[in-house]
Amino acid sequence: MEKLDPSVAQQIAQAAVAFQQQRTGHEPKSVAVVLSGDTLLITLHGALSPAEKALAQSPAAVASLQEFHRQLFTTSADELRQEIKRITGVEVCETATEVETTTGDVVQVFPLARDVPADSWSGNASGVRSSERDVLPC
To answer: pLDDT by residue (tens digit) across 17-37?
Structure first.
């Protein structure tokens, strides 16, 4: 896996934190942003609120908590998709998320319309490619 240029990764991490804060009211403890080929992964460490962590202690509640977060993400991810496109210059094809209730981590997966060459992640503070290519539909 290839780590993103810190300035681009930092912009994406900041967008992910703001998105999480806006939709749940809880800020994660830390964020990891990784690019692997045409897939962007965002891991929000410690993303569950104290109440959600307490709820996750009940095996019967775990599936409901995971499904709640999946639905919340699915219905509100367009804003984050647009922010990722603005930062990277690449269309996000779809989204997926998974909640690990034992750690409180949330993993968000963003398959992109195309691979993003490593050299396009550096040298441009905004993270937007200086020479745009046509984006194929997802």
So the answer is: 999 999 899 899 999 998 888
Beta-carbon contacts of 89 under 8 Å, excluding residues fewer than 6 positions away, are: 120, 127, 128, 129, 132
Beta strands in 29-124 (DSSP E): 30-36, 39-45, 96-100, 105-111
Q: 44 forms bridges with which residues in the sheet?
A: 31, 106
Residue range 87-110, pLDDT digits in tens:
888 999 999 999 999 999 999 999
Bridge partners, residue 31, by sequence: 44
Q: How far apart are CA 126 and CA 88, in angstroms?
A: 8
- Tell me which residue of 112, 113, 130 sits closest to 121, measured CA to CA: 130
